[in-house]
Known about the structure:
alpha/beta, Rossmann fold, 2 domains, 7-stranded parallel β-sheet, 6-stranded parallel β-sheet, 14 helices, 13 strands, globular
Amino acid sequence: MSTVLAYTSPAIGHLFPLTPLLLELQRRGHHVNLRTHESQVGLMRTLGFDAEPIDPRIEAIPMKDSEARGPKNALAKAAEVFAARGVYDAPALRTAIDEVNPDVAIIDINSWGAAFAAEAWGGPWVTFSPYTPALESRGTPPFGPGIAPMTGILGSARDALLRMLVLGAVEKAMLPRLNALRKDLGLTPVASADEFLRKAPLMLVATAKPFEYDTTDWGPDVIMMGASAWEPSQDRPAWLDAIDKPIILVTTSSEFQDDDVLVRTALEAFRNEPVHVIATMPAGVPAGLEIPANATVAQFLPHQPLLDRAEVAVTHGGMGATQKALARGIPVCVVPFGRDQLEVARRVQTSRSGTLLPKKKLSPQRLREAVQTAMTMSAGAALVAQGYAATGGSTTAAEAIETRLLNCT
């Protein structure tokens, strides 16, 4: 039996997608140690993991990308947060390694300091990404602004320019801080985000084609493991069976992003329509929210029973919420607010598994029209679901860890 050490950023949207892989490794006889968000430690212990909280100073550094203007500034603000957290991530991971003596470490892609510490450790480790990473791939646009692919010489020229303007600007601002962290750990500097992200011997990404572009080729050390969804066991809401109208599921971010306008707009858009809107707002339901008779709003609700009934999902573009729907062949309407959400929305549009409505164009009428169009795109959503299933999911990911890092046969 091998000992696995998993380390996550303070985000439920990263912990829950990782959980199926940890459960699969546990099922195969490996002992799982976990360092994660303090509020989730008790829950993770009920699954049989030896779970402990990460340094509270990490959780005290909030995401501020909702304050940014434009994708470049949003990426810069996110990078600033990850770098600031990295000051505490690195020693926390080193302490955990000393305590656990793992055979392999699994590091959340947003835990930059922990990734550096894993690299310095020298043992086998893997990066887990619940979203499309900012890796370079010929023929694929640079990560950030959510630009559709363009083939040929013009496409290559456009992508090179965008990479310099968007990622180049972020790298110029953040690489000195990252390399300072690396120097403290005795590591050589990196020259790009792509170089940093490829330091792990193996990367597991919760995605698959045809959601990803046909041109995407990240190389043999990056494995697409399909959609990875998990949520705590909860009772099916008793009121759900009483709803006799088509259900529209609306979701917002689990980390504060000032995206409650999406729920407000959806409630208004479908107030007089023969549907029932169910909205979940994990970052908190705002006080005074007016909820019409054909709607239900809650901070937390189990998504699986809701998706059993939903005909379409309206999401903020978070990979977790979007892929939960698509993995079941349910089309989506995506209104991206930032982070990786512009990229998610563009992939939804390109794969014809739903519609993209820019945040700046969000209005009740436009949202209603975009949702109605998305409801006609079940065929595209079904193809995406088939692509996810074909990867083998957590089984494939666990086998890759065993054969490539643990030398299991």
